[in-house]
Amino acid sequence: MDHAVIMAAASPRELSSKDMRSGRVLIDMDQLLKKIPLSARTIQEMEKKGEFPQRFAIAPRRVVWDLDEVDTWIIERKEAARKIAAPGFIPVAASTRR
Q: What is the pLDDT of residues 52-85, one digit of tens each?
């Protein structure tokens, strides 16, 4: 089965839901940095450690990330953060019980 590959224009948010369903969406570094509030260097180090989705080349001087993999990474980070209680954090429901 041949899947279409869509290169996001200016921002992944500008793609229609039809575009998103029709194939893989690829984002470049500029788009990634708008989506993930980390530096390019931090992302590169995390990739080396296997802590972030790997970029791949689509041309000799063009690398991209799969938007679905990046979104999955965000969801996993969010879920992991919820499991780790912040120091001194007491959930409202727990603090009102007696």
A: 999 999 999 999 999 999 999 999 999 888 877 6
Give me the DSSP letters along the chain.
Answer: -PPEEEE-SS-GGGS-HHHHHHEEEEE-HHHHHHHS-S-HHHHHHHHHTTSSPPPEEEETTEEEEEHHHHHHHHHHHHHHHHHSPPTT---HHHHH--
- pTM of the predicted model, to two decimals? 0.66
| Residue 8: per-residue pLDDT | 53
Neighbours of 7 (CB within 10 A): 13
User: Domain extents for the chain?
Assistant: 4-96
By DSSP bridging, strand 4-7 and strand 56-59 are: unpaired
